[in-house]
Fold this protein.
Amino acid sequence: MTSTFDPQAGQTVPQAQLTRPSGAAPATAVPPTPYRLSGARWWREVGWRHVVGIVAVAFAVFPILYLVSAALNPLGSLVSTTLVPRSASLANFRALFGDASRPFPRWLLNTLVVCVAVTFVQLFCSALAAYAFSRFRFKGRRLGLLSLLLVMLFPQILAAVALFILFTDLGEIVPSIGLNTLTGYILVLCGFALGQVWLIKGFFDAVPRSLDEAATMDGAGHATIFFRIILPLITPILAVSGLLAFVGVIGEFLLASIFLRDTNVKTLAVGLFGIIDADRSNNLGLFAAGSLLTALPVVLLFQYLQRYIVGGLTAGGVKG
Amino acid sequence: MLKINRTLAALAGVALLTTACGGGGESGSTATEPEAAPSAAESGVPTRGDADLVIWTDDLKIDAVKKVADGFGETNGISVDVQAITDTQSNFVTANTAGNGPDVVLGAHDWIGNLVQNGAIDPLQLTPDQLGEYSDVAVKATTYDEQLYGLPYGVESLVLYRNTDMVPEAPATLDDAFTAGQAVVAAGKAESAFLLPVGEQGDAYHMQPLYTSAGGYVFGRNAEGDYDPTDLGVGKPASLEAAKRIAALGEKGSKVLSRSVSGDNNISLFAAGKAPFLLSGPWAKGDVEKAGFGYEIQPVPGFKGLAPAKPFAGVQAFFVASKGKNKAFAQEFVANTMNTPEAMQTMFDMANLPPALTALQESAGASDPDLKAYLDAANAGEPMPAIPQMQSVFEPLGKAYAAIVGGADPVATMQATGKTITDTIAS
Amino acid sequence: MVQTLDTEPTQDLLAPPPPTGPTRISVLLLKVLLLGTVIGLAFTMLPTMLSQGRWGYLVALLLIVVAIVATYATKRGLPAKYLLPGTLLLVTLVVYPAVSTAQVSLTNFGDGTRTTQEQTVAQIIGASVVQTPDSPRYNLTVATTGSKTDGPFAFLLVDPLDEDVFVGTEDGLEELEGATVDGGFVTEADGYELLTPVEVNQAASVLGQFTVPTEEGAIRQLGIRQAFEGSSPLEYDEGAATITNTSTGVVYSVQQQGDREFFVAPDGSRLSAQSWRANVGLRNYERALTDSRISGDFLRIFVWTVVFATLSVVLTFTVGLLLAVTMNDPRVRGQRLYRSVLILPYAVPGFIMILIWSSFWNRDFGLINDLTGLDVNWLGNATAAKIAVLITNLWLGFPYMFIVATGALQAIPGDIKEAATMDGASGFFSLRKITFPLVLVTTAPLLVATFAFNFNNYNIIYLLTEGGPFTPDNPQAGGTDILISYTIRLAFGPNGAQFGFASSIAILLFVLTGVIAAIQFRFTRALEDVH
């Protein structure tokens, strides 16, 4: 039970050294050298974590296992699916990729285009706004922060008709952002561009102002300070909010079902719902296979971002 | 100052990572698609709402409609776009009002009342000769306020599926079926005697055969033979009798009916061999066939000594939108192209619904006993009421059935439900 | 180099930045380029807006361009430069639809009232046309003596039975001599230009009004290639706003019934179920606030809504934070794997998993009773159903909290933790007294947002229980109904979609959630925390 195998430790230290203001104590609690714990102490300090982890994993994973089992079940029905797969057929996956009237790869591509675009816009706008809220003092700042949160509370499901009419009109003026286009759908989701402001602002607050001030003295403009000094410091929270934004978009169904009609512009959520909606008990296997593949980008993204999220373990130490 | 590069690299990494996934996923598809990635919106959508004929349907029928529509497009030299929509009815009404809807929409006949009260569809002008080609129940169902609003192409109704490996003899009455089913359960060969979806929300559609056989009705008919919203059968004495019968079959009675059986699992339970009987429609056939045991289909029988069961008949039809951008082509497509034996044959072959065209019913039904059973059941059924007031009936009535099956007092529940529905219709 | 900078004494941030040289030009160029693009884009939209007469959008577009130019072309208003992009998107795509929803709440817009009165009359009269008995169904060729889009049009008709050829104009029907007929259709006629199917379709709006008057009624186009003779018994009198059925003599006049107007006969029967849109003032709000059914159910549902939202936040946050703390020890082997698996519930789109979960809770065939050996009718018993909803929502929501808490934990300075450990604080004590409060400070706004989200979490209720179970005497309000699922059922249920009513509910719920969230903010003093 040593820490030398921890892949994060080695990667994040250099970054932390670059960003940590001098004078702060080494923020990491990672022991630099491997050592062994006695059995009892290991249980007390580490072992129980595995117990908790395994219980949590069991809870988290059993519905997913069921989904896997359904996806591998060629019969593809609710009743014939058990937690432990009774068969391992890839028929459902093959069917997903082999049916021209249900172009699953196309849906996947559309979904990823939408997710990446919306996530990018959301991160960009949110980070900008969060910086303003954190660094500048201006009239209406507190009101702005509060109303931002309140506006997000509007039950969107009931504003769908208004959005529909808005985009019908927009589509007549500029056809490429109307209904039934991916750009229009991306645009409507960008309405929540400030969705991550609160989260990011909290982290800006933790970045000491002395950094900005010093850079100002150095002759840097405000934009330079923001993009070159501040933004890199908050990589962990950008990673977190990026993931949250991505997941928020990938599962969006309500607006997608209203906006996207052509088979070729559908996202996974609408496309898959169409499959299960048409015949719920018969298509479960297909649906499950599609759902699993939908989860894949998120899992991969998390894999990739994990080191940034946890990388903050040391980088975040700037607050001290 | 290395940091900005790092952040950008992270973002670029995300983009790369995700497009890489997309690229990987593409491999099963045509080679031209991946390049559309950055500009999918412009290049990926060859025909948007501005095609010369836009048709809305669902996943199950899109291939069939596409085939006929493509032929129509070729003949007339126009572009045709067939789209699979979820929640078609409400999306259609909203889109049509906004002037952004399709030209033709496929749906069930019981939408007509709502579509007409929203001015969303135009009547069709079929000649009496043309109409005579379709089965009576199909024409009756698509006629509303004395106008024909839809071109029927499919008729559906509930039938009784039986696992012949468990029960070889066809039951003559519902009671026979229940007895036979309970015997199979008692012998340990099945978990459920009779699969009729109830669920926690109830299911008035599937309960209708039992309800009507015991004398119940939903709406009476007026002098012209149309459903009369002021004559509600729920809460009337016959409905109370029916409710008592249903209660006797419920969880506190013979346990033939259970809320655990729902629309989500009833078909797959039957296909998994867990019950000898299934009350369902033609849509269950795919699963039943795949299941690999012997089965037979018959119209739903009635209770012993009572009226025959009258399940609702549902008719699938083509509607012409009132505010479509291409109304001339829409009328032409529905009234002249779809309204032909060839197109109806295509719909039947590819969408696999029991046909509404009489000639097709006879030719296809002759060689297919299953289809014959579906058609017999549908032709003998009552069209589901299309009047908008029907929206006030299904939900409360279903919930009443769920409560009764769960053990609530049948008479009080039915009376309360009758009052709820009457109040809602009046408001 | 950052490290050395930090030792500088604190400076006044408002001090003017020292002048700098060469970079300015490139920045300026970039600015000009970007602003130019914005203005250019706006200009390309202008012609369409002008030709379609979309003045509202035109004004909005101009305002947006002015805002962008004013913000970025000048040196003033530094905060605005950072706030504008997101705010523009928020205002146009969230605030504006919310405002138009508020406008809809003052109307009776819904099923049966989606059209204007004028459209309704046209629709009713148009739908009443019936074919004249025994009249022929003509083969139609549309022709024009003028323009192919505006007419004047003529119908070149062939009676398929006796092959007689006619020409129909606005003046009436007469026989046509010298036309070439092929396959039952006129293919050539002197003085007439024939329209192709596509041209007929394009002229549909004009042709739709074009009829050839006859003794028995009028000949109308039917599709592309057919025409029929038909008539409507209904006549509309615009001045009196009445519709008369000429065959029965009944006069239908406009009358108010319920929240809408209909054409009604003297005996009270409606001509059609189709009504039209009208302003109803605050009547929707009145109805929402005074309806006896709503007030009877409100308290119970409101309490459960608050309990549901609160417990959802508390449970997911507790579990998420505990797991984050547990996994936040570098000595745990397989940390990465644990974390990756723990976020799986978050990775699969929520609505899919809710559908799967709803089958898990089935009494006889569900996984939960199967695995636990219980025989609970989860979704059939109000208390059990509430527990089922909470557990499902915990499963769906804890990974979010896990991610957020994992992120937030990184912000806790290591030396504080070390200090606590050195002071001999137990793991639990340091968690409760140090970690928890610090994480709470960072995440408080998110918790409030999560509360608000769950307060209006329609999906989980609708897809899991549909609000059920219901008692026999009340099919309107179920055991797990929260306010939004309950009111949506009222607004979109038994009487069709009632958008006006639904919008008033949206506004009321918005106010309610806002007030609760604002109170919570006061309470957590999250705003006070930031100077």
Observations:
- Chain A touches chain B through 77 residues (CB under 8 Å).
- Chain A has two domains: 38-89, 98-319.
- The two ends of chain A are 30 Å apart (CA to CA).
